[in-house]
Amino acid sequence: MMKSAFVLALSAVVPAAMATYGGQTHTVEVGPNGMLAYYPEYVYADVGDTVMFNFNPKNHTVTQSSFNKPCVPLEHGIDSGFVPVSPDDYETKSFYVTVTDDKPVWIHCEQTGHCGMGMVFAINPPPDYDPKSFANFKALAIATNGTATPPGYTCDDDGTYWDDSYSSGDDDSHDDYTPCDHQIIVGVDGKLEYGPPNITANVYDTVTFIFKPKNHTVTQSSFEHPCQPLADTSSTGEIGFASGFMPVSPNATEFPTFQITVYDDKPIWGFCGQTGHCGSGMVFSINAKEDSNKNFDAFKALSIKINGTGGYTGGGSGAGY
User: How confident is the model at residue 169 (pLDDT cuts 50, 70, 90)?
Assistant: First the structure.
């Protein structure tokens, strides 16, 4: 019997026969019936529960990654190593993970090509409406074909980067689209502005916010409430992203960044949570529909009209320079 019990809290590996666990045991089949999949694809487990991975024929792994890089091993993370199982091997080879908190744990198979085919798994993933849902995790693994994500391309001025092999023929699928990174300067030229303040991004593109001197935030809101965090106004439980305050001194030579990934083509609205900044028009949008009455200009005008009323309530220090 292989040494197969991984206790996350202690980073210890012990023989399965010696391991004792409290709580419930959740069984996950790795590569059942020759499929490049974990079954089930995710589980919800309480602290103290155990997840038992049973390896089926072929040669798979149980390797921890992160949401943003589904197919890249997380340093010092969970890793079973490769577990080869022959078709005539009747001895069950298992690997155990003990749940030590309620945070999401992201898993993939390290075998060449498997992660890019969607062979991923999660413990306690956020709900489907959350940007970091399991469905988005799996889609990101497939979209990047198992490479480090994003590939590191900076988007062209028109916000797109396409492989040379892409053809706009009758097939309008974007299978050959390579995600790229859009960059937005926070506090561009010392102004209370994002630059550019309004961009168009494709699904799985990333947006990197680069913070310049002063003390700004990148906080998601909604069109109707431009200067309030989405978490405070959403009727569906959306949390939204928030960088927190990013103080940068006037003589800084290195600038902090904050990155998000775009998971659909719906408009994304955001603002700066520093006192008075949103009311001065320091807002931004991603994929705003310019032919709609809910376009960027209308969003900015609304933020100025209400003068940032009900502004930022998130944590962190709001002290500015």
Answer: very low
The stretch 262-270 carries a mean pLDDT of 93
**CA dihedral angle for residue 145, residue 149, residue 153, residue 154, rounded to 10 degrees:** 140
SS3 126: coil
> 5: Cβ–Cβ under 8 A, 6 or more apart, which residues?
13, 14, 15, 16, 18, 19, 95, 96
Residues contacting 171, CB < 8 A, separation 6+? none
First and final C-alpha spacing in the chain? 62
- For the chain, what is the mean pLDDT? 82
pTM: 0.52
Q: How far is CA 261 from CA 20, 114, 264, 301, in A?
A: 40, 22, 9, 26
What phi-psi label fits residue 300: left (phi over 0), alpha (psi between -120 and 50 degrees) or beta? alpha
CA atoms within 13 A on the CB side of 108: 30
For residue 40, the 8-state DSSP code is S
Q: How many CA atoms lie within 13 A of 202 on its CB side?
A: 20
